[in-house]
């Protein structure tokens, strides 16, 4: 399945129906086509509009307070396949084709701390080192 | 797969590692075993602790400002199969066995507003009416 972008005026109208929180953000879940949850991040209106217009996923970085074009530094981009808002329009689900890994630790998914009777246990190991993803600090 | 609860002291230790936001909350994604995303909601520390101790999913209702034992009114409970925290421990993924439907509109999933070139389109219809779920208003 391929994503087809709505025209700008439809994107604007759609953004106007979204219930952004007091910080102007909504939660965004990225999911692979096989159902795996890759990550949870945040979007402001500009991030939603850019993502829907370009088909390349752009979040809002709360720590850096700027648009976060996923993969801009690491190369690990997310190509949009489908986007869905939830019932009360304060969360968005992005079905994406993930280049490489989603997690900054080098794992495919950020959700790797599994609860077990003994506490937390990692379900996966990094597929690539963060140094390779972001450049070795010298 | 069956969920096995950690003992109380392990749950307490685990909760101490979670990075709750300024409102004391984390995002919680509920996913069916087949990969379908059912809903996104919020949990405070008490909700996480109760969910992990009992294996029955309990959220925090931001609108009602109280613990929200999913299904308490509607009967549409969520039985925990697996719980996973994300890399920076500010989001939790719950794999659940959903009784009936997750969405208050009577749909199985809350994420039914799909983005199309023509704007939003509903992907599913209600399986049960909200009046049946919550009792008819007279």
TrEMBL record, chains A, B:
Keywords: Amino-acid biosynthesis, Cytoplasm, Histidine biosynthesis, Hydrolase, Magnesium, Metal-binding, Zinc. It catalyses: 1-(5-phospho-beta-D-ribosyl)-ATP + H2O = 1-(5-phospho-beta-D-ribosyl)-5'-AMP + diphosphate + H(+); 1-(5-phospho-beta-D-ribosyl)-5'-AMP + H2O = 1-(5-phospho-beta-D-ribosyl)-5-[(5-phospho-beta-D-ribosylamino)methylideneamino]imidazole-4-carboxamide. Its cofactor is Zn(2+); Mg(2+). Mg(2+) binds at residues 86, 88, 90. It is an enzyme of class 3 (hydrolase). Its EC number is 3.5.4.19. Residues 39-112 form the Phosphoribosyl-AMP cyclohydrolase domain. It comes from Neokomagataea tanensis. This is Phosphoribosyl-AMP cyclohydrolase. Catalyzes the hydrolysis of the adenine ring of phosphoribosyl-AMP. NCBIfam families: PRK00051.1. One of its GO terms (biological process) is L-histidine biosynthetic process. Binds 1 zinc ion per subunit.
């Amino acid at each position: 399945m391929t994503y087809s972008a709505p025209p700008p005026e439809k994107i604007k109208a759609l953004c106007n129906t979204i219930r952004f929180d007091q910080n102007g953000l909504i939660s965004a879940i990225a999911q692979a086509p096989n159902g795996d949850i890759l990550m949870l991040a945040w979007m402001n209106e500009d991030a939603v509009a850019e993502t829907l217009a370009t088909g390349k996923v752009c979040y809002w970085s709360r720590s850096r307070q700027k648009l976060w074009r996923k993969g801009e530094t690491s190369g690990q981009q997310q190509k949009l396949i489908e986007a869905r808002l939830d019932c009360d329009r304060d969360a968005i689900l992005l079905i994406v084709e993930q280049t490489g890994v989603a997690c900054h630790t080098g794992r495919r998914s950020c959700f790797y701390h599994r609860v077990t009777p003994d506490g937390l246990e990692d379900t996966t190991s990094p597929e690539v080192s963060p140094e390779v993803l972001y450049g070795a600090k010298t």
